[in-house]
Design goal:
alpha/beta
């Protein structure tokens, strides 16, 4: 399972999403690889992602990927990230 956290530059919001997703996956007992990337990077290498985590503004421009896109309003809300990942994966 490959999960990709996406933000504009791949160095801020995506890192927070990545860390919180890894924690949530650990709590759920799900083994997955989580990467933090920029929008430019996801366009080059995102076709094999299973799930894309991103913010609502970027979710709109990532339409067309085969991955399930999960939009996260508050990237520091670990519970919401866990709930959305659980719903998508279980």
């Amino acid at each position: 399972m490959r999960i990709v956290a996406v933000c504009g530059l791949g160095i801020g919001t995506s890192i927070i999403l990545k860390m919180n997703a890894e924690n949530a996956l650990s709590e759920l007992g799900i083994d997955a690889t989580v990467e933090a990337v920029s929008v430019a990077e996801i366009r080059r290498s995102g076709q094999d992602a299973d799930i894309i985590l991103t913010t609502p503004d970027l979710a709109q421009i990532l339409v067309g990927f085969t991955a399930q896109i999960i939009s996260i309003d508050h990237v520091i809300d670990k519970q919401i990230i866990k709930e959305k990942l659980e719903k998508a994966l279980l």
